[in-house]
Design brief:
The complex is a heterodimer of chains A (454) and B (102).
Chain A lengths: L3 E4 L3 H12 L5 E3 L21 H5 L3 H16 L4 E3 L3 E6 L2 E5 L3 E5 L2 E4 L3 E3 L12 E3 H11 L1 E2 L4 E6 L1 H12 L4 E6 L3 H14 L1 H14 L3 E2 L3 E7 L3 E7 L5 E5 L2 E6 L1 E3 L2 H5 L4 E4 L4 E4 L6 E3 L2 E3 L8 H19 L7 H21 L4 H5 L6 E3 L4 E2 H11 L3 H8 L12 H12 L3 H4 L13 H5 L8
Parallel strand pairs in A: 1-2, 1-7, 2-3, 7-22, 9-17, 11-12, 11-17, 12-13
Antiparallel strand pairs in A: 4-5, 5-6, 8-18, 14-15, 15-16, 19-20, 21-22, 23-24
Chain B lengths: L5 E2 L7 E6 L2 E6 L4 H6 L6 E2 L6 E2 L12 E4 L5 E2 L10 E3 L12
Parallel strand pairs in B: 2-8
Antiparallel strand pairs in B: 2-3, 4-5, 6-7, 6-8
Classes of the chains: A alpha/beta (454), B mainly beta (102).
Bound molecules: FE2/S2 (inorganic) cluster (FES).
Protein name (chain B): (2Fe-2S)-binding protein
GO molecular function (chain B): iron-sulfur cluster binding; oxidoreductase activity
Keywords (chain B): Oxidoreductase
Chain lengths: 454, 102
């Protein structure tokens, strides 16, 4: 039987696995978490007791359905789930996988459903302990039942900003301010297109926003995080330019999402600059074909959110079945739903834009690379030597070479490089990914297949 | 030193004892190492390249901000490692312990 490897057990990976299993294949799903779900539908460890309604709110029914579906496929022996494992490298039809030990998994077809991470813009002081991504604050709440601070400021833009503020408040956390860098006029201008594509989702977002009342501020400028062993206050300017200071001991930051394309890069995908999403995304056809026997799905392909990821997972599996000459579900309805998700996602990106101008104007002292504390000034200094090309700037400045492998600094770094050369970010080029996709302890590389071999 | 994280739910779980920088701490079954330490401490470790301290950033295994040392054995990523009874953890390498990271 054809060996199909799926990387990622979020909505895209789970739907891809279902579609393949229904067609009689037996896919193998590798995922980093202990329990399948992905980020949005992440499940707490065994023994936690809050019901799905508490964890996932309006999306509880979807979460339950997906979890039950995947658990059933695994229990019936139709899908193999390999949890708590990272894929570190891909080449020649073999995945190098690291869990408690190192494994090699050979495959004929590959579906990458690697999801996304928060998209970050540096704010002076963001390297301090107690500054987290919005995603981190949501994971802490869902999967651990904790708030990452006692008085919280959330800042950035995008749907998670409002949603997370609501979830934290419902759980009993103190949210002092929700600071959206998106100007109100951008939100209104794009809001109509959002509502046309997905009226209920748009309405739900507006209701959550309204419930935040005067904590929510649109069109803000973030100036700096004041710190002393952690955040003490956020300094910001409101839409009218008035200086404000909000005391806090935790700051959550995030500007929508950044596709995690590291493995797609290692698997040989080509990339195109996406102007709507303002980032590099793997080139693929409408169903997700990115190469020979290689497919991408979910937020790692295009940032369509959890519902879109389910459709994209189905689509990638359909493409895989088509290429194998096997019977498959009709692609047309899936493609129609994907097109609607995409119209919504493009409008959403216009409503909550990436703060390009603020990043280009960051003070020299601001840390751009959190891994190695490399400042905007240092990056700018190396540009006369490196030229305005992302990979050369990376090797000279080391921005993008740290442990996160550019996940949290690449887009801001590219913005600064482009600004210095008076070019667009697309022209500055894309950082190429290097294996391993995650740092791996040497000992784990030596232990192959046998826990006792070390 | 007080904790950074605030427990809001799921507090009825069994207690687990562990050591961090030589001190006895208590976490709950189902905690990640990061949650358990930050329930009692404000940070995980010193930054390698700056004066500030670090306490994790992404909590999803992507930023690598949360690597800690075990008294014996390899380093671990605190945000994605479940706490186990009797763990012995350190915020920095023991003297003479070689770097483990590839
Ligand atoms: S906090 Fe980012 S990898 Fe653990």
């Amino acid at each position: 039987m054809t060996r199909v490897l799926i990387v990622g057990a979020g909505p895209a990976g789970m739907r891809a696995a279902e579609t393949l299993a229904e067609a009689g294949l037996h896919p193998v799903v590798v995922d980093e978490a202990a329990r399948a779900g992905g980020q949005i539908y992440r499940r707490p460890p065994e023994g936690f007791t809050r019901p799905a309604e508490k964890l996932y709110g309006s999306e509880a029914a979807k979460a339950r359905r997906l979890h039950a579906l995947f658990d059933r496929l695994v229990a019936e022996g139709r899908v193999t789930h390999l949890p708590e494992r990272s894929v570190l490298a891909l080449s020649g039809g073999v995945a190098q996988v690291l869990g408690a030990v190192r494994e090699e998994i050979a495959f004929d077809r590959l579906i990458l459903a690697t999801g996304a991470t928060d998209r970050l813009a540096p704010v002076p002081g963001w390297e301090s302990a107690g500054v987290y991504t919005l995603g981190a604050a949501q994971i802490a709440l869902k999967a651990q039942g904790v708030a990452l601070g006692r008085r919280i400021v959330l800042a950035g833009s995008g749907p998670l900003l409002t949603l997370l503020a609501t979830q934290l408040r419902a759980a009993g956390a103190e949210v002092a301010a929700v600071l959206d860098t998106a100007p109100m006029r951008a939100q209104i201008a794009a809001g109509a297109a959002m509502a046309r594509a997905r009226p209920q989702t748009t309405l739900r977002g507006l209701r959550l926003r309204a419930a935040l009342g005067r904590r929510y501020h649109a069109g803000v400028t973030l100036e700096r995080i004041e710190t002393a062993d952690g955040p003490v206050a956020m300094h910001w300017r409101d839409a009218r330019g008035r200086a404000r200071r909000t005391a806090c001991d935790m700051v959550g930051l995030g500007w929508h999402l950044r596709a995690d394309t590291h493995l797609a890069d290692l698997a040989g995908a080509r990339f195109d600059w996406s102007e709507p999403f303002r980032q590099w995304l793997p080139r693929c056809d409408a169903l997700g074909r990115a190469g020979d026997g290689f497919y991408v799905a979910g937020d790692g392909q295009r940032l369509l959110g959890a519902d879109g990821a389910e459709e994209a997972g189905r689509a990638a599996a359909i493409a895989c079945l088509q290429d194998l000459g096997l019977p498959h579900p009709a692609p047309a309805p899936v493609l129609r739903r994907l097109a609607r998700m995409e119209r919504f996602a493009h409008a959403l990106a216009r409503a909550f834009p990436w703060p390009a101008e603020a990043v280009r104007a960051l003070p020299d002292a601001t840390v751009v690379c959190r891994c190695e504390n490399i400042s905007a000034g240092l990056l700018r200094e190396t540009l006369p030597l490196s030229g305005a090309e992302a990979n050369r700037a990376k090797s000279l400045s080391r921005v993008g070479m740290g442990r996160c492998q550019g996940r949290y600094c690449q887009l801001a770094g590219a913005e600064i490089v482009a600004a210095s050369a008076g070019r667009s970010v697309a022209e500055a080029g894309r950082l190429r990914a290097q294996p391993p996709a995650r740092p791996a302890p040497i000992g784990a590389w030596l232990a192959t297949g046998d826990p006792g071999a070390e | 030193m007080t904790g950074r994280v605030l427990r809001l739910a799921e507090t009825g779980r069994a207690a687990l004892r562990f050591r961090f920088d030589g001190e006895e701490l208590t976490g709950l079954a189902g905690d990640t190492v990061l949650t358990a330490i930050l329930a009692a401490r404000s940070t995980l470790r010193a930054a390698e390249f700056g004066p500030e301290r670090r306490a994790g950033f992404c909590l999803m295994g992507a930023c690598q901000d949360c690597w800690l040392w075990q008294e014996d054995g390899p380093r671990l990523r605190a945000c994605s490692t479940p706490l186990r009874e009797g763990m012995r953890l350190r915020s920095a390498a023991a003297a003479g312990w070689p770097g483990e990271e590839a």
